[in-house]
Protein 1
Amino acid sequence: MAYADSDPNQRPGVRATAVKLLIAGGFGVGKTTMVGTISEIPPLRTEELITELSRGVDDLSGVEQKKTTTVALDFGRITISPELVLYLFGTPGQDRFWFMWDELAEGAIGAVVLADTRRLESCFPAVDFFERRGIPFVVGVNCFDGDEQYQPDEVRVALDLDDRVPIVLADVRQRASCKELLVTLAEHAISMATAAPA
Amino acid sequence: MTPSDQHWFDEEAGPLVRPYALTRGRTTSKQRDLAMITLVVALQRVTPQLADNLEPEGLQIVTMCQHPKSIAEVSADLGLPLSVVKILIGDLIDRQLLMFRSAVTPDINVLQAVINGIRRL
Ligand SMILES: Nc1nc2c(ncn2[C@@H]2O[C@H](COP(=O)(O)OP(=O)(O)OP(=O)(O)O)[C@@H](O)[C@H]2O)c(=O)[nH]1
Ligand SMILES: [Mg+2]
């Protein structure tokens, strides 16, 4: 593997490789919960500054103004070994922060897209984003209490998912469920990497 | 920070002035391979002399990076936006106080190691 180090000889300081994966889905679907369940540290929060065009409330001329706001990301960490650290990023739920997804997705293993069966459509944008870019993803159907249970096949039809995209029934408050989602994603990423291009 | 810089940190200036003041108004870092999960580590221990020569945020970064940390973690710990932290870290790399290791796109060996590691959790 090739590394771009600023100076690999100075000190054997950074031995580890960092990789990341994303946890995506609509509002309130359990992204932060999943980061918290599986991370070895309490979820951290980082933020990025963004400049948006906005129309001033008092501004009757209707001139667009630049306004700087922040978008927050939750993330956690799993130290796989001294050589390998995995970071999990919860993606921002709001559509207007889509441009951040490109940086988030760059170099990622892939994504877990959480779906809430009470409003499946809220994960459409995430599914669409990863599909278009050929980024491996799995769909985790979060089983909220008192919910009508969906079968994976019904979700596949509703989301119009390719047969190869794994669908896993999940409860991301449970560690075992989060592990299953992550393993399924990494296995799917391997099979996508080794499969002949469609 | 010299006393004359103090006015930049005035409460009234609002929360966004401060990050830009920290980076002396620069809003983009030099074209460098710094991503959210780029790992950085200090090349020096924190000495009184270093403390005298660094602005507080730089000192905080060198202190927290005595062990490797991702840029996202530095950002979270400092409570500063990623883009600001990238600029501060870029300066510290220029001054040979930090080194970095870029993230790599995971290959099959890495993916397999991830699978084995998660199963062991
Ligand atoms: N029953 C059930 N509840 C869940 C599950 N995952 C999350 N919840 C609950 O759903 C609520 C929202 O979860 P969050 O993790 O905050 O969701 P989020 O996707 O981070 O939300 P936003 O960041 O606001 O978009 C919390 O009250 C969780 O306890 C799950 O798998 N099953
Ligand atoms: Mg959240």
Protein 2
Amino acid sequence: MTVENSKTGVTAGVVGHPVAKLDSGEKVMGRSEYIADLYRPNMVHGAVLGSAHAHARIVSYDTSEAEKAPGVVAVLTGDDVGEGRMGAFIKDEHAIAKGKVLYLGEPVAAVVAETEEQARSAVRLIKVEYEELDAVLSPEAGLAKDAPILHENLDDYFKVFDTGSAGNLASRTVFEEGDVEAAWESCDVIVEGEYTTEPQAHVAIEPCGALAEVDAGGRVTLWSANQSVFRVQANVCESLSLPMTRLRCLTPRVGAGFGNKMEAHVQPITVALTLKCGRPVKLILTREEDFEIVRARHPFKIRMKTGAKKDGTLIARKCEVLLDCGAFADDSPGVLGYSLLMARGPYRIANVRSEGKLVYTNKMRFGAYRGFGNPQVTFAGEQQIDDIAEQLNIDPIKLRRKNMTHEGDPWFLGQEVRSNGLKQCLDEVEARSNWKKRNQAAQRPGVKRGTGIAVAAHISGLLGTGAIVRMLEDGSISLNTGATDIGQGSDTVLAQICAETLKVPLENVFVSSPDTDGSPYNWGTTASRVTYTTGRAVAAASADVEKQVKEHAAQMLDCDIGDLELRDGGRVGIVGSNTDLPFFAVSAHAHWAVGGPLVGTSTLVFERDTLDPKRAVAQGLPFPRIGVMSFSAVVTEVEVDEVTGQARVVEAWSAADVGRAINPQLVEVQLEGGFLQGMGFALYEEMVWDGARLANPSLMDYKIPTTRDAPGVVHPIIVEAPEPDGPFGAKGAGEICINAVPASIANAVEDATGFRHRSLPMTSERVLRGMMSADKTSGEEAS
Amino acid sequence: MADREKLNLTVNSDNATVDADAGATLLTVLRDELRILSPKRGCNQGVCGSCTVLIDGTPQRSCLTLAVTCEGKPVQTVDGFDADTKMALLRDQFQQNGAVQCGFCTSGMLISAWHLLQEDGALSREDINAGLSGNLCRCTGYQKIVDSVAAASKEASS
Ligand code: FES
Ligand code: FES
């Protein structure tokens, strides 16, 4: 299959080619429809009331005033929903607060009215009587003896793995390989430290929202901003105790998701409202609500210790983490387990122990966020590698190269890694950043310059996925996978894989929008998994169609199947001869004469074990089968203003091994966008709680990077170490691009100022304080 | 409920009379009354820029602008540039360079970029960074957006 690049006029295979995203045409015209842009006949609007307390029993509701308010159609409280509970790992969450409220702002009641404004004013007229309880505002407080208990029936909740839940402990996980305690003795250098990171808000520019309507037969159709129509279906049906056949989930365009739209937000409430009032209900969160009631990146407390021999060989690492779960478990047990699985880093270290606890607190839930706990542990681990390099006087890249994992090496706990482009990532960033000559540019007065490196790995994979490839009567192709394109371009990438396999022009492939009625199951657009897992299913389903095309053609041309080949442009012909057939002739034959319509299918689930029990022990492993590994190396150059302490990234080189870039331009955007999001996390993004109240739930008070903050240039560097069973060798790119960024910046700031920051974000104030103390001492953190 | 008023607006060269609350913002009137949906509500607080439209030729945040103040002034959204060559250049560059990810910021970004292109001569990256600093994008890291505006500006001024 070939495609013409309108920019260069060059033709090339469609896989590996930077074709423009299929939806970019409608987007530059302003025509894409996101959840807030959908309207249904007779539609009404929903609004939610947030709880006034962080922890309280709900004694009673008085909804009489609200019901009389202008335009009000219906009111919903916890009394309207049953006992159903949802949750990815621990089913601990009702559709709306019921019995108790567990964080300030938690939706406790909702209203539907003719207009959004009417709904918002009426909802404030609902009076809820509470019996206030003591609040748990930190994981330490949650673990304290006599701490107030958030989930009194935790023991009875359904859990998908052995969580070890007890009291406010939502889950605990312990992994060990080798013998860490015995190994310290053989180390010549040991570094040890405590690290903390703060909550980061996702800030997808589109706030979360949903629209639901119920038909005459009582069946509900639900559109929402989502990362998986199937997770939406599961969450709504579990929390409202509906059979899945009663709910159809669809997706409009999604204004980005970074983990925030994977599990439920307002979908269950919206469905409950439409079931209550019988009319279509749209509920779109304000920006403040989106900050306050969806989810955020976990704050981490990390204690880490790493030991090495004089020659730099890493011998042992120990990592203990404490995670604030917030009020509901959501994806948190997964984040805990995953961060511990990644805490070794991409290194050969024989003795590793990582363990952690996840504790319920009376705050908004923390959950999935691009990197899934990995940026936090990498922030600690990669600074320790630099500390060791410094103490042993070894170049930081050299030390990493000496210890890095190679193809075929097991990952921590034992899973075999079949592709590994880490060495090439390191080589690339070292050469391209001119690492050996770093910091030799003329210093500007008042400015300290520094350069840092960090490496990381990430999985792509997890759970079930499928693809249906149908050849239509005219020979064109309909591709249906159920994977939500959240803007990253997965529809385009999957169409490229399908077009390449069937040798048809890209424009002959139509990608259906996910629909739980018609799409095969897809766990979701998460875990950097769509290109790798769904791509595999698409390649296999396309190959299934190829096989069927050849069976028909063999009959029609009276030849052996083995003599047939697919030809560019959607034709099948006899090898070594000019005889061939266009797909429409084959499809017509199948539709009208013999065999029936051509439908190729494939479903799969990621099946390789995370744990090799002969190598390692694990307790509380949330992912028995996880995924293949991508790798990255990031070099960052920073300038620190000596007067203000402001650190600025001047230039960065971000290399990632993505197996094979199906669409290099889309991989580059991941590297560039992921860098900036990681930079915001490293330098200034921080959700601040004032007691139980989130103090900065607005874009005025919570700053994300703008064009003015962006580095001079981020060099995206694509490395391709093909994964044997990946589609055309591809692995994921969506998260590997963020993991090493905060650590790389921290190492650069240390290089510039002599001060090691063990707490994020590295705000001007902290960097300034650090510089002042580094001038006095040798650079150990005071705070 | 607030008083409703009749407003006469000119949006994308069409005259429209709408009934709107006296306190309604232009964003609300465009979206809810006129169903012109390209301006997006990202924050409703004047920070994100996804609601940016041209009012009398200058980019404004429609979420901060009262609709009544727009009477007698032409309002232009990204839908209203059919015959405009500079907008066509920008659109082409945005698509070619991969400057569009989720696209939620794109309408506002294109309006701000188009306004920058009204300056004579090719824009520097500093000009573009300054001119787009009020439009947030969480997906792209801005690099491909700035590249696209720079390329369009070069083409427009050649
Ligand atoms: S919606 Fe107007 S600036 Fe964000
Ligand atoms: S493309 Fe998603 S916010 Fe800019």
